[in-house]
Design brief:
five-stranded mixed β-sheet, 2 domains
Length: 510
């Protein structure tokens, strides 16, 4: 295959970066149960027909009542034979990294259409763009809260690239994979594919010229999403995410002129990396004579409106995973030229116009990212290998805690430590976002938490019986217990450094 080695290298770079980032979240910064630990569990434990959530007392019993995400089945099946060699956090990191790799591969495959083998300089420029593409402004904004939704734009981009590069059967596989991600994935494909076909029709002026299989895929994408939502509401009712996050109860009762005005103002002042490259697509479309370029500007409009009017404050801020559809316009430029080349076979666009368009859309999206008001405003600080210093120590600690729970009495884990234990976690041992109930505080015997969990530390301040305090060596994990663990079987397998409460207080306040 042409440039196979280059493709492997380009796909591997974002994969490694994302694996490092997520493992740093787990082992250095602390991953949350909601939603990183939750998704990690689902990717490795969805082995029953009805996908069951962990922590049934906190979460809905069935994940299908929240989302119809059928891809957890194959992911869990793949994980079982390798579970002895790959930890759940590492598996989650690999899967998430692969979605970012798909974006890079799509961009390279699309750009490869226009570059001859002897054009080494253009090939190098395309490689750089493909590597940077997953880390567009939108991608950087959601990377701090890794979510499965990144798979939706990644597979949509891959579908278009494969189909219009002539790899039709491979594109069908990308389409089927897309529908497995979430019940609304078909809607997202429908919104942009319908525009592509409409524009294709106006250019060719013939329905017969429209690709028949694309029409079938368009219909199937709409039917699939509607069917999944119908099945969910009929058989897995309970968690109405659309109503809870977007519409409110009663629907739209929260809307007012001031409400909309403030949200639009916030978007304009804080999300330049989203809308400026998108608006720039209009003049660039005219300059490059590419009518397919600005289509994402229209296709993402329904999601934009839904997010602006959402009752929950997170969607309208377009932080974390709520901005995922805008990854498509941020990386669409080169793919749109591949589609245009198919529809307008006689039209030849100079390579410098294609390169300039891609640079000004994807590149500007990266340049304008300001990091404000995101879960992680500077994610590039975690594109490193810091976790390697703590990996074996923490993994050993996790296994020993599970093995020697009898030494701890009633345990409470903070959010970070809970994400490691979620498979065997009891309701008593965890409380949502570190907000513990009085009934938990009354009976707790041992607290296991990271140094930066201030809420846990505050509980400790009010529990005079819990004064046996230890730091796990080479970590920032604290174990505070009513019991003396120094001479226990647990301490013989884990290196503990005993400290006083006053010393701990100083460490926490540093």
């Amino acid at each position: 295959m042409r440039n196979l080695t280059v493709k492997i290298i380009i796909s591997s770079i974002p994969l490694i970066i994302i694996i490092n980032y997520i493992l740093n979240r787990y082992y250095i910064d602390g991953a949350r149960v909601c939603d990183v630990g939750w998704f990690t569990y689902l990717m490795t434990n969805s082995m029953t027909l009805e996908i069951l959530n962990p922590l049934e007392e906190v979460l809905p019993a069935s994940y299908l009542s929240t989302h119809i995400s059928l891809f957890y089945y194959p992911l869990s099946l793949i994980y079982q034979p390798i579970s002895a060699y790959i930890t759940p956090p590492l598996y989650f990191a690999i899967v998430m990294g692969l979605f970012y790799s798909i974006i890079s591969l799509s961009i390279f495959l699309a750009g490869e259409e226009f570059i001859k083998d002897r054009d080494r300089l253009w090939l190098l420029a395309l490689s750089a763009l493909a590597i940077l593409a997953p880390f567009n402004g939108v991608g950087l904004g959601l990377i701090g809260f890794p979510h499965i939704e990144i798979a939706i734009p990644a597979l949509i981009l891959l579908f278009f690239t494969l189909y219009f590069r002539g790899y039709r059967y491979s594109s069908y596989f990308a389409f089927i994979s897309l529908l497995l991600i979430r019940e609304d994935a078909g809607f997202h494909l429908f919104s942009i594919l319908s525009l592509v076909l409409i524009l294709y029709f106006f250019i060719t002026k013939s329905i017969r010229e429209l690709p028949k299989d694309l029409i079938i895929i368009l219909i199937l994408s709409l039917v699939a999403s509607i069917s999944m939502i119908f099945i969910q509401k009929s058989f897995f009712a309970g968690d109405n995410a659309l109503e809870r996050i977007y519409l409110g109860t009663p629907h739209f009762a929260h809307l007012s002129y001031d409400f909309i005005y403030e949200r639009l103002k916030s978007f304009i002042y804080n999300r330049e990396y989203i809308y400026i490259p998108m608006l720039l697509m209009i003049p660039l479309s005219i300059w490059s004579r590419n009518p397919f370029l600005p289509l994402p500007l229209i296709s993402t409009l329904p999601w934009f409106i839904l997010s602006i009017i959402a009752i929950n404050p997170m969607p309208h801020s377009f932080t974390n995973y709520y901005a995922f559809p805008f990854i498509i316009p941020s990386t669409w430029a080169i793919i749109s030229f591949v589609i245009m080349r198919k529809a307008l076979s006689r039209l030849r666009v100079p390579l410098y116009k294609i390169a300039t368009t891609a640079l000004l859309t994807t590149g500007l999206s990266i340049f304008l990212f300001n990091g404000a008001k995101h879960y992680d405003s500077r994610p590039w600080n975690s594109f490193n290998f810091k976790y390697l210093l703590k990996l074996s120590t923490i993994n050993n600690l996790i296994s020993k805690i599970e093995k020697h729970k009898q030494f701890f009495g009633n345990i409470m884990f903070d959010e970070t430590m809970s994400s490691f234990h979620i498979k065997n976690l009891k309701r008593l041992e965890y409380c949502y976002l570190n907000t513990f109930g009085y009934w938990q505080e009354d009976i707790v015997n041992t607290l296991i938490f990271k140094k930066n969990s201030i809420k846990i530390f505050n509980i400790l301040a009010n529990k005079p019986k819990i004064r046996n305090i230890y730091i796990v060596k080479d970590t920032d994990i604290i174990i505070a217990s009513e019991y003396n663990l120094s001479n226990s079987q647990f301490s013989s397998t884990v290196e503990l450094e005993e400290i006083s409460y006053d010393t701990l207080r100083k460490k926490v306040m540093e």
